[in-house]
Amino acid sequence: MRVLAAMSGGVDSAVAAARAVDAGHEVVGVHLALSTAPGALRTGSRGCCSREDAGDARRAADVLGIPFYVWDFADRFKDDVIDEFVEAYAAGQTPNPCLTCNEKIKFAALADRAVALGFDALATGHYARLVDGELRRAVDHDKDQSYVLAVLTREQLDRAMFPVGDTPKPEIRAEAARRGLSVADKPDSHDICFIPSGDTRAFLGARIGIRPGAVVDADTGETLAEHEGVHGFTIGQRKGLGIDAPAADGRPRYVTDIDPATGTVAVGSSEHLQVWSISASKAVWTSGQTPDGPVDCVVQVRAHGGLAPAVATPVDTADGPGFEISLGEPLTGVARGQAAVLYLPDADRGDLVFGSGRITATSSVRPVSLSAAE
């Protein structure tokens, strides 16, 4: 089988490519140039896509003895990932750019080019597993990336390979060292790859500009502070609110709501953050088939954490197929624009991803029924 191995310059994708070679596939490595002005060096463990990363990927390919290319996807990445990220924050949402990159770049633009060039599959270093064609959590739950892969369709999963998902991360590093790969001890990338400084508010401010608004008390409506744009806030945020005085009861304040139309950011106690139901649009069912009714499942609303037992019911929305989620226990810090990923627990084979959608609304009203069987 002809396999295109996406090589970021990190240890995971290098070992994924190596394992594809070991499996007897005809492997070609490719590094995606996603920045129009890549830095010469990586800054610590932040960011990626630097010329250093491209060099690391090339050296790994040389060790493996496979052809290697660099493909320029910078314009596509800007249009489909960076611009969408900025627009979502300006609209008071909290997007996940890694999820968007998987959806529109790696498993769409890149995979489509791979198929056009005669490749049968795309291998990446993501921590997830495909078992009988089904997307499941990685063995290493601390590194599991099935959440950011849950937007993939049945067709995209059919031509995907995740060679490292069955192995804990420490063992991947040890394997890389045994193979003589210089990236064995390279730090993982963190935060948002196209914001190497880690200062998301400054990045957004430079692109959105100043859009003044008020920070108000969620209970009284009293104006507590002024701000320069809703893009500086996300649901559940506690720091950087710009409020001088503590709450009357001395308890911490959190962002509880964002209204981009009026520029209003509401803050209140942690109780205001409790969510019992979630609405989602742009549903993707990984099996390729929409459930015919409510399904008992577990929902995850953040890349790391934010899990709760739930009942998901397919519905039609203005943006196409979606679903409504009733939670068995409340979640906090659930923001519009995040992904709601649905899992079927399976102790023997690992949790199965069966659907995902973009969160459009939440409610603090506790549902009456908590089981699809009722």
TrEMBL record:
Chief location of this protein within or outside the cell: cytoplasm
Gene3D superfamilies in the record: Adenine nucleotide alpha hydrolases-like domains, HUPs, Translation factors
Enzyme Commission identifier(s): 2.8.1.13
Lineage, opening ranks: Bacteria, Bacillati, Actinomycetota, Actinomycetes, Mycobacteriales
Protein's recorded name: tRNA-specific 2-thiouridylase MnmA
Subcellular location: Cytoplasm
PANTHER family: MITOCHONDRIAL TRNA-SPECIFIC 2-THIOURIDYLASE 1 (PTHR11933:SF5), TRNA 5-METHYLAMINOMETHYL-2-THIOURIDYLATE -METHYLTRANSFERASE (PTHR11933)
Gene: mnmA
Active site: 101, 193
One Pfam family hit: tRNA_Me_trans_M
BP-aspect Gene Ontology terms: tRNA wobble position uridine thiolation
Family named by the database record: Belongs to the MnmA/TRMU family.
Residues annotated to bind ATP: 6-13, 32, 125
Its biological purpose: Catalyzes the 2-thiolation of uridine at the wobble position (U34) of tRNA, leading to the formation of s(2)U34.
CDD domains on file: MnmA_TRMU-like
